[in-house]
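Hey,
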Amino acid sequence: GMAVPRALQRSVGSPAGRHTASLIFLHGSGDTGQGARTWIKQILNQDMAFQHIKVIYPTAPARPYTPMKGATSTVWFDRYKISNDCPEHIESIDSMCQGLTDLINDEIKNGITKDRILIGGFSMGGGMAMHLAYRFHQDLAGVFALSSFLNKDSAVYQALKRSESILPELFQCHGTADQLVLYSWGEETNEMLKSLGVSTSLHTFPNLNHELNKTEIEKLKAWILKKLPIEAEKSN
């Protein structure tokens, strides 16, 4: 049978108070969970922390990555090339969806319901999050994608054409000066998802290259709190 995927390594930020929601942040290609967490911490001058939300930064397992001539990198999936105009490497995407589903299930075992779990990420991490949520977990609280894109004939679009469900909202950010993942690719992804019934927002950052900035992370934090508000203590 299928080899059981090893549990993903992760860096975890615990909530200051009672844990009632969870956020999964997927790093960009070649990074690690700890690396993404540290990067955000440097931008904010503090950890991205919440009273009630556990923040989980998993690390992608190392694998050969075609755009790097087959060199090993910590990537969520392989690509034939960095372009929105080629087929998706669907086998590697689907196998990682299984590993990330295990991570979601760990949170459910901790008593967190799926409508209290958000997933998203930077660059390739945002692409991974869109596959995971819109193809396999349409009952999550929301999805965010920062400097990300989907390929033109993405399996995500095919899945949404067949879907009758209420879909998680998408929060998207993209810099107009991005030279790796073009702004137009992010915009096209946003328009496609909107046309397929996803409630989307696209926040545009003039002069921002393929990176994050403070305004963007603060907007993201506000959106996270809108989707995962503090719950009143349940009185029995």
